[in-house]
Amino acid sequence: MTMAKQAHPLGLYLHIPFCRSKCAYCDFYSLSGREDRMDAYTAALERHLIEVAPQAAQHLVDTVYFGGGTPSYLGEKRLVKLLKAVKKYYHVDPHAEITLEANPDSAGDWKALRALRRAGFNRISLGVQSTDDACLRALGRIHTWQQAQEAVAACRRAKFPDVSLDLIYGLPGQTMEQWEKTLSDALTLQPEHLSCYGLKLEEGTPLYRQRDSLTLPDDEAQADMYLYAVEYLRQNGYEQYEISNFARPGHASRHNLKYWTLGEYAGFGPGAYSDFGGVRYGYIRDLDRYIAGELVLAESEHIPASEREMEYIMLRLRTTEGMNIREFENRFRRRFDPLGARLEVYAGHGLAQRTEQGWRLTPRGFLVSNQIIGELQELLNREKLEAEYKELEEKIAYFLKVLSDDALVRSILKEELSAIAEKYGDDRKTEIQDVEDEIDIEDLIEEEECVFTLTENGYIKRTAVSEYTAQSKGGMGKKGITTRDEDTVVDVFTASTHDYLLFFTDTGKVYRKKGYQIPESGKTARGTNIVNILQVEQGERIQTMLHYREAGEGQLYLFMTTRNGTVKRLPVETLKNLRNNGIRALTLDEGDELINVQETDGSQRILIATHDGQAVCFDETDVRAMGRTAVGVRGIRLREGDYVVGAARAEAGKTVLSITERGYGKRTPVEEYRITSRGGLGIRNYMVTEKTGPIVGIKVVDGQEDLLLMTQAGILIRTAVDSIRIAGRATQGVIVMRFKEEGDHVISMALADRETEKETAPTEE
Fold it and tell me: Is 4 within 8 Å of 91 (Cβ atoms)?
């Protein structure tokens, strides 16, 4: 193809998900034992490349990256076929960097490598990881150090100009001496590029499951390994250009630099991500669906260039070049001064360094880069708010002037009326008739606080809160619903008859009704089947019901939390035009379910609690706003067997109310939950024992509410929240509810406004 005039640079990433064997630490989408699908997958990739090519007509492809998985395992014939398709349908720079990832066990045939070299591949990245065979076996690698040496020799014989080696430090049982030897051995091969990564235990991997039995270097030892690598490689002629990457002059990975400089790249294959045309998107991790031509998105989000300040800070500070002050100010139209002042403080601690063009982090700064970047992003948000506040003050001053100057008001009215007349001054197209005033049915319905109850089999009812009188702490409750033997209560909460109720299904769809549209029933009634209220599809099941008030003038969000710890922030405005047959609200991973949605204003702190008594607290802004079909991001990392039971807004001055299955509970000040980054294991929320049972749910309270607890047998108790003792995080709490039936247990909790008259002793019905 002829190169487009004034073409924009573009990188291509082709994901090859095949591996001979899955490594014990690998969390990438890769599969072993699927060699029979290689030909079909190659054909699917080629179709996908052809489909996207018209969108890249004004772009010049300057990097192509075959990653995985083990791309070399696909075989040179299939790889050459794919590269030929790229060159046929895209404008490819004659000097483009074309990289192939390979494992030493599948890269020892120099003739096959020569065929790849002749086709245009000019860079190869070998996953060596260690030069110690014992360490390789511990990682589940199937190659040896000898095979790695033979693979590099084969690359040299095939005339590859750039050879990169991947190495990992912080391995189980690894000493500093072993790491030093690995670096020394690697340099005997004289690679043009080295990537040195610290071992990370990814959830779901074999190493993660073995974590309790592993002897891993502590954080300080890993830091020493990293700093040694930085200095040792510098002394041997390698320039560090990114936190984990080192290269001889002129041999940095141009493709990876695209990620760190906000360049455009298009990904192909299941699990591949793109940032192309102002849209960030990724495909689901499903080989068979991809081969079938189902290009299903796991996430898609349009991000204007003007809103990429946070990404710029995060990615540029990963590089040794760092941030360019002039580039930042020109690109985002805002001052760099507040960031510069904070970086001066970091420089005083040896964590940051002033450059000719701007600022960069030092090697020691790279070790705490996440914390530094987070603080800079928070500072930027604060500065943005101050600018908006100043603009608002100027508008207020102008409006006050208008209100006090009649002449100015008349001038504005004259100007606006003239503009309207000019634009819309045609003959009337409608007829004005006298009609009676319309009455909205909602105006005739008294607003009332009610208890909404949902069962597993889909029966729902509305009951006035006044039907449930309060009992003392430790009471046995009253019958709150009559269920069939095979049915159980799954959710209960309080809401107004004028509130919106949202119903989320197992397919990720959401339906909406007003509170008064749910039929009212007595305390012990079973309720109405949900299929008589909502137009749900056959086989579709309601998983969660939630409530919220209609959005006002400010931007509101629904903060969603799933059972597996995934979180998502969805603008409420995206749900304004809900159809009777529902719309897609989120995409759920298989086996996951939505368990909580909080209405937020964009400035809240979110607390997530788990079944086994862990909790994490982080700023809402750690999760970017997403579209309806996005999957979301990780909110909390869960230990094996654990799952999320609740989430809430962690408001200062309030307490966290935690309730267990066996009726125990306690209140803990919000201030005891320190702010951390999302995605961590969190801290202890509750001392879970056999006596207390696991956690059912949490609420953030101020002590002026009443607590409603519902058991699996349909028993409901109402008690004052301030009757439950305040205690520390690592305590067992007190008895809040006792059970009439053996084996019964608490299944859900809700809050209601304080009842004015309370019973002084437990009652039964």
Answer: yes
Residue with tokens 């039936």: 741
Specify which of 152-166, 403-417, 444-458, 703-717 reaches the highest per-range mean pLDDT: 152-166
| CB-CB neighbours of 571 under 10 Å | 17
Of 209-223, 504-518, 525-539, highest mean pLDDT: 209-223
Q: Which residue has the higher pLDDT, 523 or 520?
A: 520
C-beta atoms surrounding 60 within 10 Å: 17
**Residue (of 148, 147, 143, 201) closest to 24 by Cα position:** 201
d(CA 121, CA 83): 8
> What is the spatial order of strands in the sheet that 566-571 belongs to?
594-600, 557-562, 566-571, 633-634
| 354, part of any domain | yes
Question: What pLDDT sits at residue 708?
Answer: 84
Average pLDDT over every residue of 419-446? 72
Residue among 320, 230, 267 nearest 45 (CA): 267
- 393 — phi, psi (to 5°)? -60, -40
pTM for this one?
A: 0.52
- Tens digit of each residue's pLDDT (9 = 90 or more) over 652-674: 999 999 999 999 999 999 999 98
Q: Could you tell me if 569 and 557 are in contact, meaning their C-beta atoms sit under 8 angstroms apart?
A: yes
Q: Identify whether residues 253 and 354 lie together within a single domain.
A: no
| Residue 207 is assigned to a structural domain of this protein | yes
- The CATH number assigned to the domain holding 218 equals 3.20.20.70
Return the bridge partners of 583, or none.
510
| Domain end (from 367, 386, 405) | 386
What amino acid occupies position 699? K
Q: Is the pLDDT of residue 2 over 50?
A: no
Q: How many CB atoms lie within 10 A of CB 720?
A: 18
Can you tell me the distance from the alpha carbon of 418 to that of 425, in angstroms, rounded to the nearest whole number? 10
> CA 456, 457, 462, 465 torsion: positive or negative?
negative
Measured CA angle at 201 (ends 227, 129), to 5 deg: 55
What letter represents residue 486's amino acid?
E
pLDDT at 763: 38
Please check the confidence at residue 549 and state whether its pLDDT lies above 80. no
Q: What's the domain count of the chain?
A: 3
Q: How many CA atoms lie within 13 A of 236 on its CB side?
A: 20
Say which residue the tokens 């009332």 belong to: 448
Look at residue 101 in the predicted model and tell me its pLDDT.
95
Residue 488 is predicted with a pLDDT of 55
Flag whether 418 is in a domain. no
Sequential DSSP letters for 451-464 = EEEEETTSEEEEEE
For the domain that residue 581 is a member of, what is the CATH number?
2.120.10.90
Say yes or no to pLDDT of 606 above 90. Answer: yes
Note whether 635 and 702 are same-domain residues: yes
Together in a domain, 273 and 317: no
Residue 109 belongs to domain spanning? 8-277
CB 40 within 8 A of CB 86: no
Range 158-178 average pLDDT: 94
Structure tokens at 695: 């956690």
Label the pairing between strands 705-711 and 715-720. Answer: antiparallel
Residue 723 has pLDDT above 80, yes or no: yes
Q: Do 316 and 266 share a structural domain? A: no
User: Collapsing DSSP states into helix, strand and coil, what is residue 92?
Assistant: strand
Flag whether 220 is in a domain: yes
Statement: residue 4 has pLDDT above 50: no
